[in-house]
Amino acid sequence: MTRDIFVQARADHVASLASAAPLSALEELIWNALDADAREVRIDLVQNPLGGVDAVRVSDDGSGIDILRVEETFGSLGGSWKMADAAKTAGYGRRLHGRHGRGRFKAFALGTHVAWRTTMKAGGELLSYTLSGDAEQPGVFHVEQGETGAATGTEVYVTGVRATVDSLTVPGPAVQALAAKFALYLKAYPDVRIYFCGIPVSPVIVQKHAAEYTVKLENGQEAKLEVIEWRKKFSGKGRIVFCGRDGFSLHERPSGVRSGQPFSYTAYVQGARFAELAGENALVMDELHPEVRAWIDATRKILKEHFHRRAAEESAARLAKWIAEKSYPFAADDASERRVRFDAGVAEMREALDGFDALPVAERTYLFNLLLKTV
């Protein structure tokens, strides 16, 4: 069986989705897998001997793509079957994420040719087939029946890889970025596993510190706030992410709160009310919407208090370490003006020299001695 499916969407709209960043494309493919009840999702880069990426593979053990609804799944943009059906997955009853049928088009941000090799169960039997498409004709997909697989699941195989995908060959930043995106989902569904190049995408692995608070508005409304500090810095500043009660990200924005060195963080605000605000298109208005502005202001207040306390904790721990290693030239109880000037100089040094806290003791002692001569 071979046939074609034609997408009912404007070519420029399809092309705009296909121009997404590589990580954004991977996020959508992961959500597609999770919406198909996958318990394990693996992202792998197929590299050549020179270290370049020849292909991207995203595989899962979910229920597969329904051949009986393939026209709906691949034939329209903005009218996903997930919108019309129940808000939970058929197998494990997880909350559905996708709503607009966009994920498949973002796959073209990874490469010019995309093949979905999928196996589903129909009438008690397994049925396998391949859907494929090319960036030159992003609105046309070819369907071909294949040999029956051993179990349900889908493999998305992308070739003609774009140059931007090379940014994924250093796995650390990608793992952390994906962990931030799926943090609350993985917490809500602990049986789900995501791997990037064999590395578990786990917030616990990449987070430095986590704390929980309650955000309260003057009218009595409450929401849960979870602040996760990351081991490595993200590009840009901290983010506030509004989530439904189940941990799904509904909207995110810059926090507008400077955490100071060395904190890189994401603040997740969770509550049933945010799904309602998202449905009213209020979250995207940010501070222009009175209630959303109230939530942002209340969250910022807690974040400022959080990082003031955390900075004091980090400073005390850092000073204790320096005194113990004998690199710091003052006693802990020294209250002299010279020490105040010295500490100000240390603060400037730490801000200017990335990785200062990880320096060997001998190098830090040398720099402290140089600074001591100037104060």
Task: Give an overview in words.
By secondary structure, the protein is α+β, with helices and mostly antiparallel strands. The chain is 35% helix and 28% strand. The protein has 11 helices and 14 strands. A 9-stranded mixed beta sheet has the order 1-6-5-4-7-3-2-8-9. The chain has a 5-stranded mixed beta sheet with strand order 10-11-14-12-13, with helices on both faces. A hairpin with a 5-residue loop joins strand 10 and strand 11. It starts with a strand and ends with a helix.
What distinguishing features does this structure have?
14 strands, 28% strand, 11 helices, 375 residues, 5-stranded mixed β-sheet, alpha+beta
What is the SS-derived class? alpha+beta
Strand-and-helix sequence, N→C?
A: EHHEEHHHEEEEHEEHEEEEEHHHH
End-to-end distance: 81 Å
Across the major sheet, the strand order is 1-6-5-4-7-3-2-8-9
Q: Count of DSSP helices?
A: 11
Average per-residue pLDDT, rounded, comes to 87
Radius of gyration: 25 Å
- How much strand? 25-35%
Which segments are poorly predicted (pLDDT under 50) over 5 or more consecutive residues? 77-86
The main β sheet shows up as: 9 strands, mixed
* Overall strand count: 14
